[in-house]
Amino acid sequence: MKRGPIQNLPRGVKIVVPPPAFEACSAWDKLLVYASSLVVVGSPLWFYGGIIYLYKRWARYRALSLQAKKGNAVADDGSDDENYTSSGECSQERPGNMQRYAKYEKLASKYGTALAVVLLVSLWGPHRSKKLGELLGVRKWRLWDAWLNYVGFTVLQDTGDIDSAVATSNRGKFDLKTSPAIFAFVPHGIFPFGLAFSCLPQRGYDQTWGLFRPVVATATRLFPLVRMFISWMGGVDASRSAVSSFLSQNRDGNLSNPRRLGISPGGIAEMFESYPKPGFHPNDEAALLKHRNGIFKLATEHNVPVVPVYCFGATKMFRRVQLPHFIETLSRALKISLCLLYGKLGLPIPFRQRLTYVIGNAIWPSASNVDISNLPREEFDRRVQEMHRAFCDELVRIFDRNKSYYGWEDKTLRLV
How far apart, in Å, are the Cα atoms of 319 and each of 189, 339, 401? Predict the structure, then answer.
């Protein structure tokens, strides 16, 4: 695990959450992390594997019961003489078929019921209620302390001098913990640990950026346990309409439900933009931002700032095998992560890597008293591009200024 020396902090950077000692992660913490990672990260394997198993068992016993029933029907259609042996004793063929039919029908019913229950609960179960998550106190679970100790959860805030007027506009009235904002966490990583640990453990967001709701890909519905935790956190679907609808709420300043979102702008596609993909060097870190301005359009429309947060180490929690290019194309088209990942011992257990978050300056839409809805299209697009450029500049700035602290002096951030 990387352990950056505090004395190497650049000027203008303050420690919000100091790096915990390596020994802070106990054997019990590691056990909790390993077990929960196998259960949650590995959920597509065991969940869908379980569904396939239940279906195959149901289909097998259903077919056997039909065979036994058919054999019994054949026996019923025979003459009375065929149901007796030469000594006059009744043949056991018919009762045997009936017993087998009853046995197989019972087993088929058992596995069919189990399959139906699993599917119904996974699709419509009431366990995903946000209120249930609050009732269970999910954000305060001891499990999250284990994870934060395991990744050496560290947070810095870099407010160094910058020249961008877009970044400094409205800075004075912005409160990182309460003001409406879109927090953009970069990079996504093979599994979005950076975004997850920023909004799930109360210990994490209480000391740093405050509470917000995560924006998640629709494909997370395919991960049953991940989907459950997202529901408990009040996750917002990554569709433009859903995000815009949320940002349109509470514009009167109601702090009981502020317009605060967290998003990984690179999304699932960003996980493919790194080594071992051809054209990338092991020392390259990538952010899929160059042609992505959706969040800046929404930020401009709803007049909220975008706060860049770079998470050092997020790309090193898992490794992936470089698959044929068509897999990446298919993954982007389906908006699901089709990749072969591995961690410790080749299992879905993340490598122990310190996660150091660096919070940059909030990037605001261009100040104007003009109603956005009345702006000419060209002017709106100009403001979006201006905000986009300012965000990318700020992200590169906080990466370059803090990479030495993390121990990544030779790393380069590529905007792709």
Answer: 10, 10, 26
User: In residues, how long is the chain?
Assistant: 416
Give pLDDT tens digits for 196-240: 999 999 998 998 999 999 999 877 777 778 888 888 888 999 889
Q: Please list the residues that pair with 321 across neighbouring strands.
A: 340
**What pLDDT digit, counting tens, does each position of 2-23 carry?**
444 455 788 889 999 999 988 8
Question: Distance between CA 199 and CA 206 in Å, rounded?
Answer: 9
Tokens of residue 281, six digits: 């060097």
On the 0-12 / 13-18 / 19+ scale of CB atoms within 10 A, 287 is: buried
Kindly state the tokens that stand for 3: 């352990």
Contact 181, 172 (CB under 8 A): no
Closest to 399 in 3D by CA, of 292, 279, 315, 276: 315
Task: Tell me the one-letter amino acid at 302.
Answer: H
**Element at 319 (helix H, strand E):** strand 319-321
Strand partners, 284: 412
The closest alpha carbon to 185, from 204, 160, 162, 168, belongs to 204
Q: Residue 414: in which H helix or E strand, if any?
A: strand 412-415
The three-point CA angle 394-395-401 to 5° equals: 85
Backbone CA torsion sign across 35, 316, 294, 167: positive
Encoded tokens for 52: 């396939």
Q: Is pTM, for the whole model, over 0.70?
A: yes
Structure tokens at 263: 């998003």
SS3 state of residue 175 = coil
Cβ–Cβ under 8 Å, residues 399 and 310: yes
Helix axes 294-302, 240-248, angle to 10 degrees: 20
